[in-house]
């Protein structure tokens, strides 16, 4: 569990392994440079505040409103960027199963009608989101872990809206522009081919078992 100074997590696959869905150059820029920049910005902001060191990124973001006002927005942006990207890499794999497993498939069917309907709605929310941000599949712990699709602007985190993140796709142009240019809907449609469904199912199981983050 990494805390301040936060460090770039290693990928569980090589940069080029997600090609052709995500090309190696995009992965290198996105992970090695963009994600690193969020971490550098976060560490710099927190350096003068040792009382805020030692928290996981998730616990830090949950306490955003308690942070000194002069660093709150910076932590929201850079800390959110770190958390969202760390989450994103975890749910990607070069060895994707085509369909979610039984338990997760049942939950998707219960809340969206079918797995295909879920995918269509997720792509629509991601495509229609204006500007940079993220689209998420989340569980709502206040409603018996009902599954919902939400999009958030910039680097905002689902941790700040009382939801638990199961799956997310990056809507910032740096995530897809080299290959998909302005065609965000194509990016979202192709991206299913690298989604690590077993990891998504495991996150839902952990949340249901009472873990606060996965
Ligand atoms: Mn990104």
Write a compact overview of the structure shown.
By secondary structure, this protein is mainly alpha-helical. It contains 8 helices and 3 strands, in the order H-H-H-H-H-E-E-E-H-H-H. A 3-stranded antiparallel β-sheet has the order 2-1-3, sandwiched between helices.
What does this structure look like?
It contains 8 helices and 3 strands. The chain folds into 2 domains: 24-90, Fe,Mn superoxide dismutase (SOD) domain (Helix Hairpins, Orthogonal Bundle), CATH 1.10.287; 102-208, 3-Layer(bab) Sandwich (minor pseudopilin epsh fold). By secondary structure, the protein is mostly helical. The chain has helices spanning 24-46, 57-62, 69-90, 102-112, 115-128, 177-180, 184-191, 197-208; strands spanning 133-140, 146-153, 164-170. Helix 5 (115-128) runs antiparallel to helix 7 (184-191). A hairpin with a 5-residue loop joins strand 1 and strand 2. A 3-stranded antiparallel β-sheet has the order 2-1-3, with helices on both faces. Helices cover 47% and strands 11% of the residues. The chain binds manganese (III) ion (MN3).
